[in-house]
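Q: Structure tokens for this one, please.
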Amino acid sequence: MSSNSNIYACFKAGFDPEAPFLDVIDVIDGDVYRYADLDVLSAQVANFLSGLGLVPGDCVSVVCKKSPELLWLYLGCIRAGYVYHPLNASYTENELAFFLRDASTRVVFCDQSLETRVAGVARDCAALKHVVCLDGEQRDGFRERLASASRTFATYRSSADDVAALIYSSGTTGTPKGIPLTHGNLYENAFTLMETWRFSRSDVLLHVLPLYHVHGLFVILGPALLAGMQIRFLSRFEPTSVIKALPSVSIMAGVPTYYTRLLATDGFTSEICSKVRVFISGSAPLSDKTFISFKERTQHTILERYGMSETGILTSNPLMGVRKPSSVGLPLKGVDLRIVDDKGSPARAGSTGEIEVRGENVFSGYQGLSEVNRDSFREGGFFRTGDQGYLDEEGYLFIVGRSKDIIITGGMNVYPKEIEREIDAFPNVVESAVFGVPHHDFGEATIAAVVAESHGGVQETELLIGLKRKLAGYKIPKRILMVDELPRNTMGKIQKTRLRERFNDLFSKI
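A: Here is the predicted structure, written as tokens:
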């Protein structure tokens, strides 16, 4: 690690100034940048921000669509010692108001199309002093002032414990919680992943993920920058654009939805993927069906990993070795991972319990929530992930669901993932989601929402009969409901909260 713990200094230590950095490939005659350009542009951003009167530790929020400018903004922000706070551009005014106030944002960047919305929110945020359009053409705007800023900047000397970024939990079960990530957290995970996945300067990464989410911003970009590799940059996932780019890259990272959509697209063949050495998947569970179909089509075994915003990546299937379907792999170097029972005692191999972790990659606590933090950490520094899983005899981790998703029916614990795997294995089933709703007798009833390949291709009675051959009686869903699609967030995670809300009264009149 660099003598300066600022993660930009760590990135820069491995730069070859003349090496290619970024190739913007979804724009005709798209720009191409070298690592020397990255250093200049991030310096200009750092100087621009400093000119706004910020001091190290101030928060800079960003509500913008994906673009190369976001990279310069992110790197310039952390280079100057400010806290980078990315936000989804689809947030409503009420959501934006919460985030900007809770983060004590000093400067917010937005796209010109969002300026009116953000400016309206900004008036009620006491700490907020500047609203800047990232893509505006107005006089004295960001681009004009950036071009006139100094091309050099002495990177701020940060400690490993200084906050580099502020991320928020999704808030699907309550108010979003602020997650401060330090320079040390980000470096530790980036360095470990670079070694685990063997990223090197000879690699070429296809970057199709959003930049407001940890997956695209930290998980994949961090190790790529440490390795000094070239990045081919798409502003959004679109199957034909990805297929066109794959012959020229060696690494692709995505969410499971990306891989299912590639499999459904004509022209996605093993020949297209012949130069790719690894496909990485995360942010949502990868189904066995997609795992197997992808391998059959391409001869590539998708590498699935597991992590959280609070911790970075915790486990990964091996680059060289067995990648088990349904498993998220082995704990990374430097990560202490254990499974504990309801009393907090270590569980034996094969037993399901809560996943707890500690390591230099793990955050130190939610922002301003001391009571929540007392419940989130155990003695010894182990963070309670809220995920349920088990370790097999070889140490591979299997996730069975979130603690909040466990269904307690008639006093028995039901883990949704176990049932979903069985349902997804049926012919003509695309995917499923299992969740609990109130029941007058059992407390909770197990419900499955199922998407089929064609209307009428799967019947509830057929699935129930099949499941009774595979699962104990108390695990069998009380109802299997055929739906057109499952609700998802922007990263492809199924939103079971919305399913519970939709079907909450299913048994209320019985």
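A few notes: DSSP finds 16 helices and 24 strands in the chain. The domain at 204-401 is CATH 3.40.50.12780 (Rossmann fold).
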